[in-house]
Amino acid sequence: MANSKFEYVRSFEQPDLILPNTWIVVRIDGRGFTKLTTKHGFTKPNDKRALDLMNAAAEAVMKELPDLVIAYGNSDEFSFAFHKNCTLFERRASKLMTTIVSTFTSYYTFLWSQYLPDKPLTPPLPSFDGRATSYPSDENLRDYFSWRQTDCHINNLYNTTFWALVQQGGMKNTAAEQELKGTVSSDKNEILFSRFGINYNNEPDMFKKGSVLYRDYTPSPPRPPPSPPRKTAPTELAHPIPRRNTRPSSQPLEPSPHFFKDWTESD
Ligand code: ATP
Ligand code: ATP
Ligand code: MG
Ligand code: MG
Ligand code: MG
Ligand code: MG
Prior knowledge:
By secondary structure, this protein is α+β, with helices and mostly antiparallel strands. It contains 9 helices and 5 strands; from the N terminus they run βααββαβααααβαα. It has a 5-stranded antiparallel beta sheet with strand order 4-1-3-2-5, sandwiched between helices. The longest helix has 31 residues, at 138-168. It is globular and about 80 Å long. It starts with 22 loop residues before the first strand and ends with a helix. It binds adenosine-5'-triphosphate (2 copies) and magnesium ion (4 copies). One adenosine-5'-triphosphate binds at residues 29-34, 37, 42, 44, 46-47, 50-51, 75-76, 159.
């Protein structure tokens, strides 16, 4: 029905192209997972099988979308980064974001019974929200992931202490909450160690730091050495192009492998 009299309604659609040459990060987060994890009796504070399920769904997303270079997840969230030079869907934010959300949700649901065979999935089914953000510099992208990882650390230290007070200390939820009000990290570490003999440092890395998936890439081969200067100007050019314009436009910056590794080491 091309060019029908109804076609004008297309002009109501707003453009949402993401700025070229910027990293695009799509973050998804489980909707109402506090309820969902209670309903299905997830082990608190961390059900490892449920985290493995999140990672498996994220891996499937990365396999289906080759433009993704790195993904980071913890709890019920995952962040996916598209390469700066990605041109998928003309970089339309809503298409990139909704495709990630629905692909992730499909796999999360599909793989559920494999990871949680003793917990039949019934409505309300898991769902995820999503947002797309663009980051201009490598430093911004790195800081983004550091931000999410710090969030993971803060939440996990809180949850680990909270559930120790409830499960091992026999406290009511509200009492444990009250006990933790106004405490800083060192207080929580102290509670865990002195009252429950838990050294927080020995908790699994996946719980403390989250999970990273990244695509192996081959760095571009080194450029050949420049050819020797010509003795005569090329005659075919009536107006020789100024030298700065004859160079290839700057290549998109390839992150070094260290870019992907370093930030996971920082706390
Ligand atoms: P919203 O819809 O606003 O995101 P939410 O209930 O999902 O609400 P979040 O801040 O996203 O709120 O918190 C996620 C919840 O899911 C937390 O309570 C967290 O402890 C729980 N959760 C996520 N993954 C696991 C897991 N693997 N094991 C146990 N609990 C988990
Ligand atoms: P894109 O990812 O760009 O949307 P697409 O292949 O999904 O690519 P669409 O324009 O959305 O392209 O077209 C949907 C396709 O699915 C068409 O080929 C259509 O005939 C087919 N299709 C959708 N629903 C049915 C159905 N119920 N029975 C048979 N074919 C269907
Ligand atoms: Mg949320
Ligand atoms: Mg959530
Ligand atoms: Mg969350
Ligand atoms: Mg279609």
